């Protein structure tokens, strides 16, 4: 740290302009602060949200295109806007990231000479994976292992996958300038060490910041309600909620499985506003589940902690893991996750 | 080429030692720990006497010189002194390192074979530089190798030492000239791995020759696939791919034997000494606790200063030669060392790839201060607010291990804010989120300082987000906490005032829309002052007029009373009765003195305001309400009534005389004047005793008339300057009672 002994050297020449900006609320920074203030002073989440609708993807997008994103467990991260990121430089990015990974992996060894590190990095856009026209395009990063021997049939194994997206991220988009690309939600699948290396590269290259995105019990119950509310042609999995009781020596988990149609019936009985979910409805829905459980087992679930929600639409764990099952509601699920990510970076 | 070479060799070094850095760092930290007071301790251990530190230092230095001379001369038959001198050298070397001359001597001694190999080993282990090793010593040492006077094991030790200390040799050109000699030493089976490692560090492109390649391949054929040979071969292949046609296994992990084990802790101490990073090892010690987190943000919270590496790469590619000449090129951050440099290159400064790095560089903070580019500030904003939340120890459960680290981080931020004389928005946002969860203990001083740097804003808007939480903590915490909160609010007020007063001066030049909102900002400031008044009134009651607390409260009002004159801002807010009366009736003379000072300043400010108003009749926007004057006059009357005219509280105080009689203070009127006021009692008594020291009973009522004046002079001479100013400005001395 340098010594700061001469503060007089830096008079604030533009105090006036900053103050002016303050009163007008003109600068992006000021806008950000305003939105943080709003967020902190009122209840964190809006009291109502839309129930995910079926076909929000643009018409020219084939939902099967994103099938590979489903049925995989993703670890969630929030990500601040990327500085000077460009969709046209993917080739270069993959080369640089490849070199970076190679360098990181070789730490602790004498330098391995030659560029023959057996991985391949691919950047590609996920066209159409967004909520509005304003949302920037999502993109995908894959790390593939090259087959050892060229003679064998060229099968490349995916070692690690991560994707960046923004679905209905309007509130964030308003507060940054054009040098930035807002993709607040990052999802990774693969070894944590790889995520760390790749994340570090992104942080260094685009001056962004990754933070693990945990989902608290409050948001999990919203997920439970919203996903139960989704219309399904056929249910693929039972609805299951998991509570955790912190007690020693081992914590006690309580699993609560409901037939999805029963859950839907319960939801329909508490649901009033068409197309929307309100906070009261979520509370009521959960209270019904609690009281039912209490009637049978004399356990107050409300006194424990909700840690996992699994439905036919998706399943989410409190430590920030998600698995999306239903292609129809992919966008809907991502919209909510984007909202959580945006909230975290504000 | 040469700079590239430097990077190469550095990278190689790093990779060969990366394996167990955590442990070594920890021990380095310990070594550092006792660096501070080691000398006296070691001295004590030897001599069993506690000496003057300075003396101990000098003595150690002398002892070292004697020891070195002893070794230079060669062995004398008394082994006792040998042991003693060895110890001396070891102690100094391990604690502080040796100067280049000392190293020169010891290298010659160890390699000249004057002593046995046990002694040589010990000597080698303690050849540790203070900062650098001179190249000449190394060259001289190599010449000793040719003399053939030392054993094989000593040679091995020498090469290991050379590899370990490679980075600390000041130049390497001459050593590189000895490349052929080192290369020839590969023949020796015992030396081969270490010589390979040395060559690996030393090799430049021009050292790669066909005959050397042939020799290496021969050796490989003779000894089999040795990792050290392969490492060297692959380096050769990297430099001159055409020379080596053999395929080297690409994915084999190439290891050198770890040459530096012997000097590991010393090297780390050395490195931190050279870089001047005292706190880093501590961080790395903690790193093991949360490996995942550390993986991400490798070494410290604040990123290292790097200029934008990506853009550099891409620019290199796209720019052809003419571009290169036309643009005068950007100035890399790594070269930025001085303020004049910053001024010269401010237009073409290459910004750091991670903006957070500016926190560690005062030069870049200058830059940040005047930059107009909003994206720079946004990058800093995002990084800082996320890092604060991620590192905050009470924000997340189980994060308490990082307390020290977080506090250091906050200190760095605060230094930057203080340097810029401006708060960061991200810190304000962080306060919104973290203050409601704060226990009032963790990093208290840092956290409150963050509060004092909140950028100027509308108080009523910020109050529910911050100050309501703060007051809750304030009322439920100890008196010391209350005092620190008041202190921080005083600083906050000062920062706001400075900011606003700067602005007012600029205002007349620029035609900003501020004119209409100046009243708004004054409102915000006065709301802050009223908030503190409310806090103070309640706190005084809660802590039953505690003197310590009153001091902090009056400190705050010392700022408040001078706003009009000191900051040239149209605002005078008088303190609430809940502060004034407890201070007036305080038992402590310094409180009363401070109160007098503040009253005097209020008086001056209000007079100045009145005068100004009288002069500029037009500017009525900021005229003070008559209520302010009334309040002040009321206080003034009360004060003069108490202290001077002995007619206290003539208005408004109606206590039944009977009650006063029962409390035996029927004659209360005089009991608050300068003589009888409890705060001044001790002064009165010592004043009277001064006059007649033998007296057992003093007559306090004797102080009147002329004596009253003497008494006053006595009080002033005792340092009650506040009182002096107050009496001069508010009381006409003709009215001496």
UniProtKB/TrEMBL annotation, chain A:
Pfam families listed in its UniProt record: CENP-L (PF13092)
UniProt-listed InterPro entries: CENP-L
Keywords, ordered alphabetically: Centromere, Chromosome, Nucleus
Subcellular location: Chromosome, Centromere; Nucleus
Keyword flag tRNA processing: no
Keyword Methyltransferase attached: no
Domain of life: Eukaryota
Family recorded in the similarity comment: Belongs to the CENP-L/IML3 family.
Protein name: Centromere protein L
Organism lineage string: Eukaryota, Metazoa, Chordata, Craniata, Vertebrata
TrEMBL record, chain B:
Domain of life: Eukaryota
Pfam families for the chain: CENP-I
Localization per Swiss-Prot or TrEMBL: Chromosome, Centromere; Nucleus
Stored InterPro entries: CENP-I (IPR012485)
UniProt-annotated stretches for the region Disordered: 1-54
UniProt keyword annotations, A-Z: Centromere, Chromosome, Nucleus
Family, similarity comment: Belongs to the CENP-I/CTF3 family.
Protein name stated in the entry: Centromere protein I
Organism annotation: Rangifer tarandus platyrhynchus (Svalbard reindeer)
């Amino acid at each position: 740290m340098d010594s700061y002994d001469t503060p007089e050297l830096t008079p604030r020449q533009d105090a006036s302009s900053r103050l002016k900006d303050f009163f007008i609320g003109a600068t992006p920074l000021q806008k950000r602060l305003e939105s943080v203030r709003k967020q902190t002073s009122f209840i964190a989440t809006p009291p109502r949200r839309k129930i995910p609708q079926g076909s929000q993807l643009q018409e020219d997008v084939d939902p099967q295109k994103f099938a590979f994103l489903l049925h995989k467990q993703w670890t969630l991260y929030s990500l601040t806007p990327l500085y000077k990121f460009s969709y046209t430089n993917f080739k270069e990015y993959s080369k640089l990231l490849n070199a970076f990974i190679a360098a990181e992996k070789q730490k602790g060894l004498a330098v391995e000479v030659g560029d023959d590190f057996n991985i391949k990095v691919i950047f590609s856009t996920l066209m159409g994976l967004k909520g509005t026209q304003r949302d920037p395009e999502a993109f995908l990063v894959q790390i593939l292992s090259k087959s050892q021997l060229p003679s064998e049939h060229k099968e490349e194994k995916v070692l690690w996958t991560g994707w960046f997206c923004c679905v209905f991220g309007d509130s964030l988009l308003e507060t940054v300038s054009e040098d930035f690309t807002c993709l607040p939600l990052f999802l990774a699948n693969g070894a944590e060490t790889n995520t760390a290396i790749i994340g570090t590269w992104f942080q260094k290259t685009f001056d962004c910041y990754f933070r693990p995105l945990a989902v608290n019990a409050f948001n999990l119950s919203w997920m439970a309600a919203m996903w139960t509310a989704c219309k399904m042609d056929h249910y693929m999995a039972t609805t299951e909620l998991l509570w955790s009781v912190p007690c020693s020596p081992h914590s006690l988990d309580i699993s609560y499985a409901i037939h999805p149609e029963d859950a839907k019936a319960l939801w329909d009985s508490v649901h009033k506003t068409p197309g929307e979910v309100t906070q009261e409805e979520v509370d009521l829905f959960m209270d019904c589940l609690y009281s039912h459980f209490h009637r049978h087992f004399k356990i107050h679930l409300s006194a424990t902690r909700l840690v996992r929600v699994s439905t036919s639409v998706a399943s989410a764990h409190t430590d920030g893991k998600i698995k999306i099952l239903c292609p129809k509601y992919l966008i809907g699920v991502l919209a909510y996750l984007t909202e959580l990510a945006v909230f975290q970076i504000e | 080429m040469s700079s590239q070479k430097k990077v190469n060799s550095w990278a190689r070094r790093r990779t060969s030692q990366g394996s167990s850095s955590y442990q070594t760092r920890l021990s380095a930290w310990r070594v550092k720990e006792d660096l501070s007071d080691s000398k006296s301790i070691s001295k004590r251990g030897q001599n069993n006497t506690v000496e003057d530190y300075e003396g101990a230092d000098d003595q150690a230095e002398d002892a070292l010189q004697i020891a070195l001379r002893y070794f230079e001369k060669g062995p004398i038959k008394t082994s006792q002194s040998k042991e003693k001198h060895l110890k001396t050298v070891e102690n100094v070397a391990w604690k502080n390192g040796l100067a280049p001359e000392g190293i020169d001597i010891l290298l010659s001694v160890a390699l000249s074979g004057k002593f046995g190999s046990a002694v040589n080993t010990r000597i080698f282990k303690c050849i540790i530089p203070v900062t650098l090793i001179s190249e000449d010593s190394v060259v001289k040492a190599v010449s000793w190798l040719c003399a053939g006077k030392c054993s094989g094991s000593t040679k091995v030790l020498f090469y290991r030492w050379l590899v370990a200390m490679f980075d600390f040799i000041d130049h390497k050109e001459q050593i590189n000239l000895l490349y052929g000699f080192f290369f020839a030493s590969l023949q020796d089976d015992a030396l081969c791995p270490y010589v390979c490692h040395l060559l690996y560090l030393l090799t430049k492109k021009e050292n790669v020759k066909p005959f050397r390649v042939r020799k290496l391949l021969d050796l490989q054929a003779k000894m089999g696939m040795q990792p050290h040979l392969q490492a060297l071969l692959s380096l050769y292949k990297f430099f001159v791919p055409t020379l080596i046609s053999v395929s080297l296994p690409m994915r084999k992990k190439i290891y050198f034997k770890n040459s530096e084990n012997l000097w590991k802790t010393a090297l780390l101490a050395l490195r931190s000494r050279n870089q001047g990073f005292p706190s880093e090892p501590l961080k790395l010690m903690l790193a093991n606790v949360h490996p995942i987190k550390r993986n991400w943000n490798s070494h410290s919270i604040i990123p290292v200063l790097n200029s934008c590496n990506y853009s550099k790469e891409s620019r290199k590619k796209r720019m052809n030669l003419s571009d290169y000449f036309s643009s005068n090129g950007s100035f890399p951050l790594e070269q930025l060392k001085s303020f004049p440099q910053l001024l010269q290159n401010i237009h073409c400064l290459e910004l750091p790839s991670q903006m957070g790095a500016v926190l560690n560089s005062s030069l870049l903070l200058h830059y940040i201060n005047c930059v107009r580019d909003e994206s720079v500030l946004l990058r800093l904003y995002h990084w800082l607010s996320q890092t604060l939340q991620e590192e905050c120890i009470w924000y997340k459960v189980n994060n308490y291990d990082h307390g020290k680290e977080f506090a250091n981080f906050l200190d760095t931020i605060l230094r930057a804010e203080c340097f810029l004389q401006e708060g960061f928005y991200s810190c304000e946002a962080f306060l919104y989120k973290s203050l409601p969860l704060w226990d009032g203990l963790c990093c208290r001083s840092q956290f409150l300082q963050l509060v004092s740097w909140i950028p100027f804003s509308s108080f009523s808007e910020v109050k529910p987000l911050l100050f309501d939480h703060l007051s809750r903590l304030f009322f439920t915490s100890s008196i010391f906490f209350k005092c620190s909160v008041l202190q921080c609010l005083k600083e906050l007020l000062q920062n706001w005032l400075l900011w606003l007063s700067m602005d007012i001066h600029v205002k007349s030049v620029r035609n900003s829309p501020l004119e209409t909102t100046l009243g708004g900002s004054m409102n915000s400031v006065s709301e802050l002052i009223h908030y503190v008044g409310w806090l103070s009134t309640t706190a005084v009651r809660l802590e039953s007029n505690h003197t310590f607390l009153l001091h902090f409260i009056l400190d705050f009002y010392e700022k408040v009373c001078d706003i009009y004159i000191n900051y040239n801002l149209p605002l005078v807010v008088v303190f609430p009765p809940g502060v004034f009366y407890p201070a007036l009736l305080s038992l402590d003379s310094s409180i009363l003195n401070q109160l007098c000072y503040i009253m005097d300043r209020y008086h001056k400010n209000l007079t100045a305001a009145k005068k100004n108003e009288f002069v500029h009749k037009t500017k009525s926007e900021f005229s003070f309400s008559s209520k302010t004057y009334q309040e002040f006059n009321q206080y003034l009357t009360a004060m003069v009534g108490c202290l001077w005219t002995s007619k206290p509280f003539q208005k408004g105080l109606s206590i039944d005389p009977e009650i006063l009689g029962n409390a035996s203070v029927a004659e209360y009127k005089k009991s608050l004047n300068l003589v009888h006021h409890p705060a001044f009692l001790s002064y009165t008594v010592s004043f009277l005793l001064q006059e007649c020291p033998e007296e057992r009973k003093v007559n306090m009522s004797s102080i009147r008339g002329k004596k009253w004046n003497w008494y006053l002079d006595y009080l002033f001479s005792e340092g009650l300057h506040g009182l002096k100013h107050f009496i001069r400005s508010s009381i006409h001395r003709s009215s001496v009672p």
